């Protein structure tokens, strides 16, 4: 159907087909969600497939918005071309284009029928390929690379992986000599991995929105608690991170800190 939309001879026909695709897309999503999931893997595949369909519908909807905005007045010009003294010539010309197109692509329409859509939740190599073996299809975190990065930081102890799992989320006990530029890079890598893991294991969750809400909440609390303690907090910050090692505030800003 998207190919049909792209090659259709009129803007109005493209809009009609886009509306049809939205309706059929919703039907496919309903079929997917109605499919019973018996295992963790099936549920994960279901959510990823639903997300893929939703993203496709968002693109189609965006095209429709552009169509109705009609900033270049192309749709309006097409409507005007359907009237006047040449109305019959215009009509039969478009009818010929449609017939020629259907003769060229006789089976294109049927491929998008909701009735023929199979909501399969069988093993999907593309989806499962997003996870490492250690993540076990999203059941567990794979912090092995981050563990190696952590124990190779200046000033850290060579703790076991098991011990690292107990401390990786606790930043309060990290001594000053460890909080260098490399440490800040490690923290950013840890954050990026955890965000990626949540997005891969909960594909229908709006993770970016949650992060924005957390950041806004943090900023509000920071403003509330700053007040007269701002100077003292600056001193605490300087005591916590070695600015000389970092090379200045510019590098902190580049790391998002």
From TrEMBL:
Its main location: nucleus. GO terms for molecular function: RNA binding. It comes from the Eukaryota. GO terms for cellular component: spliceosomal complex. GO terms for biological process: mRNA splicing, via spliceosome. Residues 131-177 form the SF3A3 domain. Signal peptide: none annotated. The keyword Nucleus applies. It is found in: Nucleus. InterPro entries: RNA_Proc_DNA_Dmg_Regulator, SF3A3_dom, SF3a60_bindingd. Residues 82-107 form the Splicing factor SF3a60 binding domain. Keywords: Nucleus. This is SF3A3 domain-containing protein. The lineage of its organism: Eukaryota, Cryptophyceae, Cryptomonadales, Hemiselmidaceae, Hemiselmis.
């Amino acid at each position: 159907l998207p190919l049909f939309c792209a090659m259709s001879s009129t803007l109005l026909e493209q809009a009609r087909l886009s509306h049809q695709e939205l309706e059929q897309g919703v039907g496919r999503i309903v079929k997917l969600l109605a499919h019973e999931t018996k295992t963790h893997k099936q549920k994960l595949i279901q959510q990823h497939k639903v997300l893929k369909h939703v993203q496709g519908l968002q693109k189609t909807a965006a095209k429709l918005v552009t169509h109705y905005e009609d900033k270049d007045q192309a749709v309006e010009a097409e409507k005007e071309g359907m009237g006047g003294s040449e109305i019959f010539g215009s009509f039969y010309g478009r009818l010929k284009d449609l017939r020629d197109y259907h003769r060229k692509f006789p089976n294109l329409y049927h491929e998008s029928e909701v009735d023929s859509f199979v909501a399969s939740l069988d093993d999907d190599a593309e989806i499962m390929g997003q996870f490492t073996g250690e993540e076990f299809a999203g059941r567990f975190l794979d912090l092995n690379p981050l563990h190696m990065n952590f124990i190779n930081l200046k000033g850290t102890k060579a703790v076991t992986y098991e011990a690292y799992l107990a401390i990786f989320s606790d930043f309060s006990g990290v001594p000053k000599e460890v909080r260098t530029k490399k440490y800040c890079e490690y923290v950013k890598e840890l954050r990026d991995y955890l965000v990626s893991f949540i997005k891969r294991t909960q594909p229908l969750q709006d993770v970016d929105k949650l992060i924005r809400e957390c950041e806004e909440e943090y900023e509000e609390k920071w403003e509330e608690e700053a007040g007269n303690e701002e100077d003292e907090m600056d001193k605490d910050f300087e005591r916590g991170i070695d600015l000389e090692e970092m090379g200045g505030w510019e590098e902190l800003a580049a790391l998002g800190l």
